[in-house]
Amino acid sequence: MRVVYKVLLGLGLSSCATALFGSSTLSTTPAACERPVYLTFDTGHMQVAPLVAEVLARQQVRATFFLANEPTRTGGTSLDEVWAPWWKSMAQQGHVFGSHTFDHVYWLGDTPDGRFLMRPSAGPQTGKSFTWTAAQYCEELGRSAKRFEQMTEQKILPLFRAAGGKTSPALLRAAQACGYEHVGWAPAGFLGDELPSEQYPNTVLLERALRNIRAGDILVAHLGIWSRRDPWAPAVLEPLIEGLKQKGFCFATMDAHPTYRAKIQATLPLSPKAPDEVVVPLVSEASAPTADAAAPESQAESEPIDVKTNESNN
Question: Rounded to the nearest 5 degrees, what angle is found at the Cα of 16, between the Cα atoms of 12 and 18?
Answer without folding.
Answer: 105
